[in-house]
Every structure is written in structure tokens, then in C-alpha cells.
């Protein structure tokens, strides 16, 4: 009898630090998961933070079109590779190895980008951003896959909000740190492009930090994975079986983000020439969207977890940003802070409500492929928009730029309204209240048990 009693005591009181079902284990995992893309988001917007230096004839001397190319070349590889990366995560590499490989691409890309600036070779800068893009978007796919793998149901929106919050803290720190860092580098070297290259090289340390976080979360995930778990098969043809709601979510993703990220990239000279802000004031205003998203994204995520209705929140976010672009472009007598703060609210709201919906629309073994496919289209949109905005900005026609952003969000808002209607007709889960969502989750869990696919290591 005593021999049988001891194991039972250990089973009832597992160590929280190693038990993947404990809250403490998941909290620690969530922290490292949120830091997974800190470095890539910090370095992604290095050009926006240093816009004046990149376009200064005494430093790099880029035209607006060449400058926007730094963002276009980031996006071009991901028109295809985000989808391929998601498929590789689901089918070939697995999320742990995939995240590690893509994190290394981010590091290499930033180093090559810095080398291009240091050598004053624009083509090498583009190569660096290309490599960086290969890793950055696929790493985001891996992060989303981890999130859906570890969390579900009533915590999913909150965790996505926290994940976005940490990513945007990276962007915010970048906006406020890179210029002082550049100025500090000038104390050691006064040759323009080499000073800029050194600042970008130092920024690469954040990517190394994120790689360390990737290794830690991989070790925790390996410990959490149940031995002998059944792996579902996936085929590339599964993409054509995704429901109509998924395609509407993808359209919203492409067009909404096309009105935010390129706007931040080009906004510094806009604030200065149209609203008469000083460079310091313009930089502070340009970072406010990301600063706001840090507390607002998890807050909205928590609220959405409580009340549900994800698709309605997506529609509301589009309406808010649509109104704000209208104010920024055509009501210039009003302070730009109103429009930019509104975009920050809408951006935070959409990010916390849109991305979790993918897990409601596809099966668990298809999540990486679905997120990859969605981000491939997003990057195609960002690449094309970056080229278009660079061409329009060449002539400093700011009303045309804002009109372009307004049109993007208008179509996105129409797609969000269609999502609500289609989901209701198909009796889907994208726009239901939390009570109904929990009932549907219980039914899905019961079905998983019948199919023999339940994995207690990831239960919420």
C-alpha cells in the first residue's frame, strides 16, 4: 500500500514550474511567447524612426520612392513565403524548429541591412530587408501558431492582445530610441552612412534577444507536448476548403493594415509639412499609435473575451479608422492628434479581435498554414501600397495619399460588414456572444474526445 500512495501524492501536487497544465507554467510561457517577435518589430520600423537620416543627402540621400522600397522589399518575399512558412510549420518543420530558423533569418537580415547602409550600397540594403522579411513574417506565423496551440477559448483574445502589445512596445521603443542612438554613434564616427549603419547594427541585438526567447519557448513546448499525440495530415489543397469567412478576414487584414503601417512609414514629413509640427513633435505623434496599442490591445482582448462578438469589434475598428483618415486628410484645421489617437484605438481593437478568429474558422492542424496564407496576402498588399505611396509622396500630394488610405479602409469596412452577415447565415462562431461560444467549445471538445485527438497538455 505505501508504494502505491506516494505516486498518488505526487500526481495531486505537481510542480507548477514543470507542469504544462498549471497556470504558472502558462504565464511564464506567455511571457516568452510575447517576446518572440520583439526584435523583429523593433527593427522592422528602423527606417521609419530614422526617416530623416535615410533621406538626408549627407547620410544616405534616398528619394521617397527608394525609402519606401525598404518596406516593399521586406514584403515581397512574404507574398509567397509566409504561406510556405505556415505550411512548413504545420507539415514539415514543426513550430519549434520553424520558429528557430525564421528567427535566425531575422538576425541575418538585420546584419546585412546594416552592412548595406554602412557600405552605402542601396541594393545590399534591399537584400538585407528581403532576408529580414523572410524571417519576420514567418516568425509571426510561428508565434500565432504557438498562441493557438497553448491557449484557446476564453483567453485567446487576451493573449493575442498581449502578444501585439509586446510587439508594439518594440516598435515604440524603436521610434523613441533610434535617433538618440544614432546621435550617440556620431560621437564615435562622424561619417553619415557609417554612423547610421552602426546604429542599425546595435539594433540587431534585439533580434538576438528574441532568438533566445525562441529557444526557451521551444524547450517549454517540448516539455508540454504529449508523447504519442496524433498528428493530423494537411494538404496544400486544404486552403481551397477554408470557409468564406476566412477569405473575408483575409481581405480585412490586407486592406486595414495597408492603411496603418505605410501611413506610419510616411507620416513624419506629412505632419511637418501639413500641420507644421517640429521634427520632435512629429516623431512623438508618429509613435503614439504603437504606444497606445501596448495597453489597449490586451485591454480590448480581455473585453472581447468577456463579451464575444469578434466580427462586430472588427467592423467598429474599421469605422473608427475610416473616420480618422478622413479627418487627417481633409480637416487639417483640427489637430492631427485626434485622428492619430483614433487610429491607435481602432488598430488595437482590430488586432485583438481579427487574428483570434482564424482559430475559429480552421482546424487546429491547419492553423499555421492559414495564418501563413493570410500574411502572404497581407504582405502583397503592403508591398504594392508601399510602391504606390512612394510614387504619390514624390509629389507631396498628401490629400491623395490620405484618399488612398481612406479607400482601403472603406473596402475593409464593407468586408467586415459582409463577414457579420455571412457568419450569421452560415451559423458560424465569428460573431456570437461568449455564452454561446463556450457551448460550442464544449461541443468541439466532446467531439475531440470521440475522435481521440484531445491533448490535455494544452487544455485551458
Automatic annotation (TrEMBL):
Give TM regions: 70-89, 101-124, 196-220, 246-271, 283-304, 311-331, 337-358, 379-398, 404-422
InterPro entries xref list: MFS, MFS_dom, MFS_trans_sf, MFSD1
**Matches recorded under CDD domains:** MFS_MFSD1
Q: Which residues form the Major facilitator superfamily (MFS) profile domain?
A: 245-460
Q: Which reaction does it catalyse?
A: L-histidyl-L-alpha-amino acid(out) = L-histidyl-L-alpha-amino acid(in); L-lysyl-L-alanine(out) = L-lysyl-L-alanine(in); L-lysyl-L-lysine(out) = L-lysyl-L-lysine(in); L-histidyl-glycine(out) = L-histidyl-glycine(in)
Cellular component GO terms, alphabetical: lysosomal membrane
Which subcellular locations apply to this protein?
Answer: Lysosome membrane
Q: Which UniProt keywords apply?
A: Lysosome, Membrane, Transmembrane, Transmembrane helix, Transport
Which SUPFAM superfamilies does the protein's record reference?
A: MFS general substrate transporter
Membrane topology annotation: Multi-pass membrane protein
Q: Which GO terms describe its molecular function?
A: transmembrane transporter activity
Q: What does this protein do?
A: Lysosomal dipeptide uniporter that selectively exports lysine, arginine or histidine-containing dipeptides with a net positive charge from the lysosome lumen into the cytosol. Could play a role in a specific type of protein O-glycosylation indirectly regulating macrophages migration and tissue invasion. Also essential for liver homeostasis.
User: What's this protein's family per the entry?
Assistant: Belongs to the major facilitator superfamily.
Q: How does it assemble?
A: Homodimer. Interacts with lysosomal protein GLMP (via lumenal domain); the interaction starts while both proteins are still in the endoplasmic reticulum and is required for stabilization of MFSD1 in lysosomes but has no direct effect on its targeting to lysosomes or transporter activity.
- The identity of this protein, by name, is Lysosomal dipeptide transporter MFSD1
UniProt source species: Oikopleura dioica
Amino acid at each position: 500500500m505505501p508504494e502505491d500512495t506516494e505516486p498518488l501524492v505526487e500526481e495531486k501536487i505537481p510542480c507548477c514550474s514543470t507542469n504544462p497544465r498549471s497556470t504558472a507554467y502558462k504565464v511564464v510561457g506567455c511571457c516568452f511567447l510575447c517576446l518572440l517577435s520583439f526584435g523583429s518589430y523593433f527593427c522592422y520600423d528602423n527606417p521609419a524612426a530614422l526617416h530623416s537620416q535615410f533621406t538626408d543627402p549627407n547620410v544616405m540621400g534616398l528619394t521617397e520612392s527608394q525609402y519606401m522600397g525598404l518596406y516593399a522589399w521586406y514584403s515581397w518575399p512574404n507574398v509567397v513565403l509566409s504561406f510556405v512558412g505556415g505550411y512548413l510549420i504545420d507539415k514539415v518543420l514543426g513550430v519549434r524548429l520553424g520558429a528557430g530558423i525564421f528567427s535566425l533569418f531575422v538576425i541575418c537580415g538585420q546584419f546585412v541591412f546594416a552592412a548595406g547602409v554602412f557600405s552605402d550600397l542601396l541594393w545590399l540594403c534591399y537584400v538585407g530587408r528581403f532576408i529580414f522579411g523572410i524571417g519576420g513574417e514567418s516568425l509571426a506565423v510561428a508565434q500565432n501558431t504557438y498562441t493557438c496551440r497553448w491557449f484557446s477559448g476564453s483567453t485567446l483574445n487576451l493573449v493575442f492582445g498581449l502578444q501585439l502589445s509586446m510587439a508594439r512596445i518594440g516598435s515604440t521603443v524603436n521610434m523613441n530610441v533610434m535617433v538618440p542612438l544614432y546621435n550617440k554613434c556620431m560621437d564615435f564616427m562622424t561619417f553619415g552612412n557609417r554612423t547610421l549603419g552602426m546604429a542599425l547594427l546595435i539594433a540587431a541585438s534585439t533580434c538576438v534577444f528574441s532568438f533566445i526567447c525562441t529557444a526557451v519557448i521551444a524547450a517549454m513546448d517540448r516539455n508540454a507536448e504529449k508523447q504519442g499525440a496524433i498528428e493530423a495530415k494537411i494538404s496544400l489543397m486544404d486552403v481551397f476548403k477554408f470557409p468564406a469567412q476566412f477569405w473575408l478576414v483575409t481581405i480585412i487584414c490586407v486592406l486595414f493594415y495597408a492603411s496603418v503601417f505605410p501611413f506610419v512609414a510616411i507620416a513624419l514629413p506629412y505632419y511637418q509639412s501639413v500641420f507644421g509640427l517640429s521634427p520632435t513633435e512629429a516623431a512623438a505623434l508618429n509613435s503614439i499609435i504603437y504606444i497606445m496599442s501596448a495597453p489597449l490591445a490586451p485591454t480590448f482582448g480581455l473585453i472581447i473575451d468577456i463579451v464575444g462578438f469578434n466580427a462586430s469589434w472588427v467592423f467598429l475598428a474599421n469605422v473608427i479608422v475610416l473616420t480618422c483618415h478622413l479627418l487627417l486628410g481633409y480637416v487639417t484645421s483640427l489637430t492631427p492628434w485626434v485622428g492619430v489617437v483614433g487610429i491607435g484605438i481602432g488598430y488595437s481593437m482590430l488586432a485583438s479581435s481579427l487574428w483570434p478568429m482564424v482559430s475559429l474558422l480552421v482546424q487546429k492542424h491547419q492553423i499555421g498554414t492559414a495564418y501563413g496564407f493570410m500574411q502572404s496576402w497581407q504582405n502583397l498588399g503592403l508591398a504594392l501600397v508601399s510602391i504606390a505611396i512612394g510614387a504619390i509622396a514624390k509629389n507631396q500630394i498628401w490629400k491623395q495619399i490620405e484618399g488612398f488610405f481612406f479607400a482601403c479602409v472603406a473596402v475593409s469596412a464593407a468586408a467586415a460588414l459582409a463577414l457579420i452577415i455571412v457568419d450569421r447565415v452560415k451559423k458560424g462562431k465569428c460573431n456570437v456572444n461568449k455564452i454561446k461560444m463556450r457551448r460550442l467549445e464544449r461541443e468541439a471538445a466532446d467531439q475531440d474526445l470521440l475522435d481521440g485527438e484531445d491533448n490535455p497538455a494544452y487544455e485551458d
